[in-house]
């Protein structure tokens, strides 16, 4: 199994920034795709950003130009830098790891006030 622990969530005003971290531990035997998804109340979980083992990145349309994703393979950690935050970014953000199976973190709350 793989265990994912997110950190860095919190409450900010619109236009502010937050940096989320996700550290993976457990049965990790290769560098795999990791990413961030989010889920707002009443909504489906949606893609925020993913980064592959080779550094390829895919962003969700709603965050392009505002968020960046990066990873530190030595630390098995993925980061999400969120800039120019908007109230509609308010959601629980979940870290994702894709290996033999798909794993999810417990989620971290991000709240953006106007």
Describe this structure in words.
This protein has 114 residues and is mainly beta. Helix content is 0%, strand content 56%. The protein has no helices and 11 strands. It has strands at residues 2-7, 10-13, 18-26, 33-39, 46-51, 57-59, 67-72, 77-82, 91-98, 102-104, 108-113. The strands form 2 sheets. Strands 2, 4, 5, 6, 9, 10 and 11 form a 7-stranded mixed β-sheet that branches. It starts with a strand and ends with a strand.
Brief sketch in words of this structure:
The protein has no helices and 11 strands.
Structural descriptors:
four-stranded antiparallel β-sheet; seven-stranded mixed β-sheet; mainly beta; 114 residues
- The count of DSSP E runs of length 2 or more, i.e. the number of strands, is 11
Task: Outline the low-pLDDT stretches.
Answer: none
- Give the number of helices: 0
- Structural class label: mainly beta
Helix % is under 10%
**Mean pLDDT rating:** 95
General form: globular
Listing every helix as H and every strand as E from the N terminus to the C terminus, the arrangement reads EEEEEEEEEEE
- Oligomerization category of the chains in this entry: single chain
Which range does the strand content fall in?
over 45%
Distance between the termini: 40 Å
Q: Mind telling me the C-alpha Rg?
A: 13 Å
Largest sheet: 7 strands, mixed
């Amino acid at each position: 199994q793989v265990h994912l622990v997110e950190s860095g969530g919190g409450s900010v005003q619109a236009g502010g920034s937050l940096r989320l971290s996700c550290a993976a531990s457990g049965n990790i035997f290769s560098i795999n795709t990791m990413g961030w998804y989010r889920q707002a109340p009443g909504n489906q979980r949606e893609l925020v950003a993913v980064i592959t083992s080779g550094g390829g990145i895919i962003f969700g349309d709603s965050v392009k130009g505002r968020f960046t994703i990066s990873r530190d393979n030595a630390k098995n950690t993925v980061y999400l830098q969120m800039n120019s935050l908007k109230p509609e970014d308010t959601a629980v953000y979940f870290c994702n790891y894709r290996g033999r199976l798909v794993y999810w973190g417990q989620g971290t709350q991000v709240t953006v006030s106007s």
